[in-house]
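Risk register update: the risk of archive-format incompatibility is retired. Evidence:
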Amino acid sequence: QVQLVESGGGLVQPGGSLRLSCAASGTIFSIYAMGWYRPAPAGKQRELVATITGVGSPTYADSVKGRFTISRDSAKNTVYLQMNSLEPEDTAVYYCNADRVFSTYTDYRADRYLEVWGQGTPVTVSG
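Archived output:
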């Protein structure tokens, strides 16, 4: 089994900063991409905040470009989200995601993978 453990959420004033961390543990050969999602407006699925591949290629939601930075330590199977210039609209539970988790080399060769979600860490931006 593979688990994701998130940390770093909390309460911050508008304009402040927070850094989220997410560490994957378990039997892991490789992870294609790791990222962060948050609930979308009512009736829609979780929306992508930022994601990053194993080679360091990031993708950001338009709403966070220039304010958030995602980074990854592949050796530690850990992803970070540095959130600056936070706005009340950023208030949400942030969920870590690991996409295409291959537990062993055999799984990798067979293209057999898992998608794993963390339990979420709350971020509240309020003055």
